[in-house]
């Protein structure tokens, strides 16, 4: 994995969890808006909107650089629209990065010829 691909995956991973948290907070704010006088939906909506747009931009870049299959690319997008999906995306991306580091070290040591 080259440095640009690793960077694209890292950016996507770093925005996944905050995007998921903002989505959950937006849902909580929506419920509070309807049940109380507290209305933080405009603020949380804007924050979540920015994080979601960043996620989509980073997702497209990662898909392009990592050469994911259609199923993998779509999986990461679907995870972005599920309330807790960003947490699963972050965990899966972290595992993918760790596996790439292990494979890279193995190639350097001549253990694997890939």
From TrEMBL:
Cellular component, GO, one term: plasma membrane
Any Pfam family hit: DUF3817
Membrane topology qualifier: Multi-pass membrane protein
Subcellular location: Cell membrane
Domain DUF3817: 9-95
Transmembrane spans: 39-58, 70-89
Keywords: Cell membrane, Membrane, Transmembrane, Transmembrane helix
Protein name stated in the entry: Membrane protein
The species this protein was found in: Streptomyces albiflavescens
């Amino acid at each position: 994995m080259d440095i640009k691909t690793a960077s694209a995956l890292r950016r996507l991973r770093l925005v996944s969890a905050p995007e998921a948290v903002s989505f959950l907070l937006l849902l909580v704010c929506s419920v509070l808006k309807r049940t109380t006088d507290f209305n933080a939906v405009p603020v949380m909506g804007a924050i979540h909107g920015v994080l979601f747009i960043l996620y989509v931009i980073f997702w497209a870049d990662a898909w392009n650089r990592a050469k994911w299959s259609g199923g993998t690319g779509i999986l990461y997008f679907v995870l972005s629209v599920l309330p807790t999906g960003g947490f699963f995306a972050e965990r899966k991306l972290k595992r993918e990065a760790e596996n790439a580091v292990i494979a890279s070290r193995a190639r350097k040591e001549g253990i694997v010829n890939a």
